[in-house]
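[User]
Protein folding is very new to me. Any chance you could explain this protein sequence and its C-alpha cells? I have pasted everything here:
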Amino acid sequence: MYKKSRPKRSRLSEDKFRRIAKCFVYDLTAHDTARLLHLNCHTVQHYYVYFRSLIFTALLPYEPISGEVEVDESYFGPTRVKGRRGRGAGKKTIVFGILKRNGKVYTSVVKNCQIPTIVPIIEHQVSDGSTIYSDDLGTYRFLYLRYDHKVVYHGRSQFAFKQNHINGIESFWAYMKLRIRKFKGIRKDKFLIYLKESEWRFNHRNDDIYKELIKLLNPTH
C-alpha cells in the first residue's frame, strides 16, 4: 500500500539524512524541514513517506490487548456538512480505538460504528475476561458476554467516576486532532498512514522516538 523501499541518497550525505530523520521525530512538517535544512521540499517529503511506510509496516503484527481496556470512536474531517446530522455525518472519517490503560493504543478506520463492524474488532484485539470501559453507545451493549463491561453514561453527563472513565483513549483523540491541525488537514487517501504514525508516536510517548525510528531504519541492529 505504501512505498517501503529506501530512497536513493546519491547526493544526500549521511549527516543530512539523519537531520531529516531528527526533524521527522520532532514532528516538523516537510515544508518546515526543507526550509530549515535548505533542501527541496519534494526530497524531504520523499523521505517522510519512507519513514511513515516503515512505521505502518511495524504496526501490522497482531498484538493482543488484555487487562483494563478503554474503547471509543472518533470522527475526523469537516466539522459540519449541510443536510447531514448525527455521528460521523457527511464526509467524516470514522476511527475506532482500543487503549490498554497505561499502555498502547490500537486504531482502525471503520465504515460505521454498528455492531457487525465494531464488535469483531474488539473480540479479535482484546483477550477474553478483560475489563472494558466504554461510553453508552448501543454498539457496546453485548460486551458483557465476554468481558467485564463498565459503562460511562455520557448521555447522563457522566464522564468519570473513580476508575469508570475513558479518559485515556480520549487523550489520544485530542493528540491526533492536534497533529492534524498542524498539517492543516490531511487528504483522505493519506489519512490512514498519518493515523498509524500518530498511534506509533503515542505508543512510544515515554521512549526515545529517534532511537525507535533508527531501529526501523536498521532492523538487523
About this structure: Residues 14-58+188-217 form one domain. The chain is about 40% helix and 15% strand.
